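Model it.
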Amino acid sequence: MAVVVSDTSPVRSLSHLDCLSLLRDLFGQVVIPPAVEQELRTPPASFKSVDLRKHGFVRIQAPRDRKRVESFLESLDAGEAEALALAEEIKASAVLIDEAAGRASAVQNGLPVIGTLGILLRAKERGLIDAIRPLLDSLQKDLGFFIGASLRDFILQQAGE
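Modeled.
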């Protein structure tokens, strides 16, 4: 199975949906940098805390190359910067990231990207979830997760919903 590195948003979103196990089922192991673990453990008031210690498929690992992290910090937040630097270091199969700037930087640096919607679509294709529509509704309504109308329509079409 693949090893992926995740930024905050996909883990927070899947935790909200009570679907964190999809990461294990789809990827095997998920590596989280300390800045992401901190963002999940001590979130802004509008989000629930996520304790990753109870998920054996999640490993917390710091990137070793601080200069690389600093170069990413010029345009990204700490979680995104550490996630991209770590993904490069461990040659991750993909980076799980939703934010546009982080996705663009990952692609620019040759890192494959999968977002929350891509994870849900893969899970539906593999029969791990029955429907995507109610999950998208919950993300948008409860978390304020932005999904453009055309992207939402595309995802639902791909999922056969």
